[in-house]
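Session log. Operator J.P. requested a structure for one protein chain; no other inputs attached. Running the standard single-chain path with token output.
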Amino acid sequence: RPALSEVNRFYQRTLANDPDEALDQAEKMLADRSLVDYYDSVVLPGLKLAAADEARGTISRQRATEMTRSILAVISDLEEHVDAKQTGTSNLERIQGTATGLVACVAGRGAFDDVVSAMLAQLLAQRGVAPRRIPHTSVSREMIAQLDLSAVTVITVSYLELGGAPAHLRYLIRRLRHRAPHATLIAGLWSQGEAVLNEPQAQKAFGGDRYVASLREALDASLAALSDPSASQDLAARISSAETAISPNT
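Structure written below.
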């Protein structure tokens, strides 16, 4: 388990709008760990702290926007990073050449959810998968009718905090399901305590196909769906007529 100081250092550097120091910290850590492990062990916990502070009002929306810009700059600078060794590489990653298709990385409504989508999109691209980042505004009730998801095989949705209002996620999944009934829908709930991660009844109520709590799990789930050519057909067969008939404005 990572030392808390690593997470705190990352958080303080981004809070201070210091992407150069954050990048320097990242490059040192990447000497002995993979990029996905760095994101899961340092950046994701740091984002959870930021999301909690933003929800409490400790961080203003403007400061959250500045922090997001700073973190995205660090992620961009890590675009060409190549892991020094294949430590912790999953079996699915080793057969990534069989994974073809487009993955839509949809951001939740939180201030930092787009950062998680950016990390996942980058990790997918490094594995030869075509990602498409989609901001939350594009999947709103007003805008989703204009969103073309016909070429998408997998949709991932990122939520750092449900904020005690899981209806937001449930209706977002419903709109996406209506818009892309052929796609496998993976919900990333990056807070380990979310009940939906472990309760089948809650998962059924939300309507997703997979629920994950780390970027490595999201990668594996996406690659698994892309590697199975029958996944889309099986998924379409599982969708009830009532669900597919739901209006995107519901």
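Operator note: The mean pLDDT is 83.
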